[in-house]
Amino acid sequence: MDSIIVEGNGPLSGQIPISGAKNTCLKLMTAALLSDEPLTLTNVPRLSDIRTLSTLLESHGCEVALLQGGRVMVLSAREITNRRADYEIVRKLRASFNVLGPLLAREGEAIVSLPGGCAIGARKVDLHIMALEKLGATITLEEGYVHATAPNGLTGAVIEFPFVSVGATENALTAATLAKGTTVIRNAAREPDTVDLAKCLVEMGAKISGAGTSEITIEGVDRLHAATHQVIPDRIEMGTFMIAPAICGGEVELLGGRRDLLEAFCEKLEAAGIDITETEAGLKVARRNGAVKAVDVTTAPFPGFPTDLQAQFMALMCTAEGTSTLEETIFENRFMHAPELIRMGARIDVHGGTATVTGVKGLTGAPVMATDLRASVSLILAGLAAEGETTVARVYHLDRGYERIEEKLSAVGAKVSRVKADG
Ligand code: EPU
Question: What's the average model confidence in pLDDT over 323-341?
């Protein structure tokens, strides 16, 4: 397995292009199953998660063609040849569970493996199932698979989620596009990913209003048609790279960066003393004046502070002046980076869903282990600020969600390189 080697170094300077959003693109890809006409996606990120989902879609009979070096993807699901999503693929990628809504809506049947637990928490699917049952599906659990049927099609209904779930909102949204009548989703996710999915579905002929608010209304249509859609920039990749100059100084421009996708995070970064300026090409982030200040953070669904940036912000707080409290409210086990950061000299106390971080003068490089996607990248960020060399092992997690991370960071002066497992 490859490792990433990071050497602590001084100020960064230059530009980093932001790729298309992983989590958005994955859900857009599942939408292709709703139509027998092609869906063309542009600004597709080149990531292993995208390849894994392509393989799953191909197993359902969807043709996946990559153009322009993988930046453009054409998905043609003329005919669904298989309604079963196998455990072997679904276990690798939770977003695979989002083929359930489209397959069921189009075919009247879907058999999708339960995704299973994952490192960051239990990650149940009860809300996905509740939503599809409301739309009239009969659902049974058989040998680790969710078997959903609706032989006469789905019917619009009111779906009220007890708390926000991005994935369940998106499964309900896609399924409801082909249901008979009107569906109202209450307490819907407002994440930019969900809004972009709704936008793409509208371009395919769906009738959706209210995406981006907590109530989405969908008027079912008989069929969806071909469309071309551009994937929005990856706000989590953007936030991650905003931490890089914040943690080791300098000024970096994020090409394609958009503040509106990350307002709550930007406000916290500014409170920590980081300058953020909107430019014609994106966002400029600079740390000019002295130490970073300690800032408290509580994760929350959009428009709150994203859970997917909590680990990276913790890396920053490790070297801040003072003590900060980081509260994780979305996933029950998302502090696995803390013990690794402690190995680098950080002072962190974790009690349940709260981490108290006391800034130290300096971190030191160490061999550390990547445990999940966002935890892995927080270790790279910490390595940028540490004295000496940090080796991050098990980086396959990183390749799931960050495109050419070592190249992008090296381009702004960071000393980050990859050591191939066989060399
Ligand atoms: N939950 C349930 N039951 C359900 C669904 C969710 O209890 O049926 C719980 C989850 O266990 C969690 C909370 O609800 O505690 C919120 O989970 P949500 O469903 O919103 O998350 P998700 O759809 O599984 C997506 C992203 C995650 C991101 C979360 C929160 C994708 C592919 N994944 O997951 O991204 O952290 O929303 O914003 O869209 C990542 O990219 O590193 C990542 C983990």
Answer: 95
Please state, in angstroms and rounded to a whole number, the distance separating the CA atoms of residues 99 and 413.
41
The pLDDT-based confidence of 95 (bands split at 50, 70, 90) is very high
pLDDT confidence of residue 118:
56
Atom of ligand 1 nearest to the CA of 123: 11
User: Edge-to-edge, what's the strand order for the sheet holding 347-351?
Assistant: 297-298, 323-327, 354-358, 347-351
CB 168 within 8 Å of CB 128: yes
pLDDT at 117 over 70: no
Closest CA to ligand 1's atom 17: 165
Q: Is 118 a catalytic residue?
A: yes
> pLDDT by residue (tens digit) across 2-53?
899 999 987 999 999 999 999 999 999 999 999 999 999 999 999 999 999 9
**Inter-residue contact 231 to 369 (CB < 8 Å):** no
**Can you give the C-alpha Rg of the chain in angstroms?**
21
Residue where the block lists tokens 């599809």: 132
Pocket of ligand 1 (CB under 6 A): 23, 26, 94-95, 121-128, 165-168, 193, 307-308, 330-331, 373-374, 401
- Ligand 1 pocket test, pick from 23, 139, 232, 371 with the greatest ligand atom count within 8 Å of Cβ, gives 23
Residue bearing the CA closest to ligand 1, atom 28: 308
pLDDT at 166 over 90: yes
Pocket test for ligand 1, best of 53, 173, 330 (most atoms within 8 A of CB): 330
Does position 370 have pLDDT exceeding 90, yes or no? no
Please identify which of the residues 25, 118, 200, 266 carries the catalytic annotation: 118
Q: CA 173, CA 164: separation in Å to the nearest integer?
A: 14
State residue 422's pLDDT score.
Answer: 67
The torsion defined by the Cα of 208, 101, 196 and 262, in degrees rounded to 10, comes to: 120
Euclidean distance between CA atoms 246 and 140, whole angstroms: 49
Residue 273 to residue 289: CA distance in whole angstroms? 8
Q: Could you tell me where the beta strands, DSSP code E, fall in 192-307?
A: 207-209, 215-219, 227-230, 250-255, 275-278, 282-287, 297-298
Q: How far apart are CA 157 and CA 152, in angstroms?
A: 15
